[in-house]
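Researcher: Quick test of sequence recovery. Tokens follow.
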């Protein structure tokens, strides 16, 4: 099992908490913690709260993957100070495909490095640039009205 710690700006963390509940209605797994950094907190405050959350993970965790929203912002900078080779890693640019993949497979994962790369690939594969309407999906009534 890999522990997951999601550290984001306050309201973003709450949104991901709701998204976790949406995809996992039976409840957030015990190996997932979400920390929303408040505007009045500095890096040390965030680190102290994060360490407390990490200590709550089950003893059979094979490391912790910390996911943050924005590279270079306080949540990310705090997480970077917590990285320990083989024990903790971070992924930045948190998006929904990344989070869902991580939560879905973390309980079965045993290799932190491999798991981190798998989750990163899910994040990348979840991004598409769509710049033109699809021919086969246009609603006929809506198209006729235009």
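Model:
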């Amino acid at each position: 099992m890999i522990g997951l710690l999601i550290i984001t700006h306050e309201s973003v963390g709450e949104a991901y908490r709701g998204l976790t509940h949406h995809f996992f209605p039976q409840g957030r797994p015990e190996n997932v913690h979400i920390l929303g950094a408040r505007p009045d907190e500095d890096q040390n405050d965030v680190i102290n709260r994060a360490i407390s959350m990490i200590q709550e993970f089950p003893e059979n965790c094979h490391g912790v993957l910390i996911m943050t929203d924005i590279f270079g912002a306080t949540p990310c900078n705090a997480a970077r100070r917590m990285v320990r080779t083989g024990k903790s890693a971070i992924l930045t640019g948190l998006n929904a495909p990344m989070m869902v993949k991580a939560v879905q497979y973390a309980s079965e994962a045993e290799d932190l490095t491999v798991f981190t790369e798998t989750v990163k690939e899910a994040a990348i594969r979840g991004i598409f640039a769509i710049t033109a309407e699809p021919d086969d999906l246009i609603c006929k009534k809506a198209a006729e009205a235009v």
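The mean pLDDT is 88.
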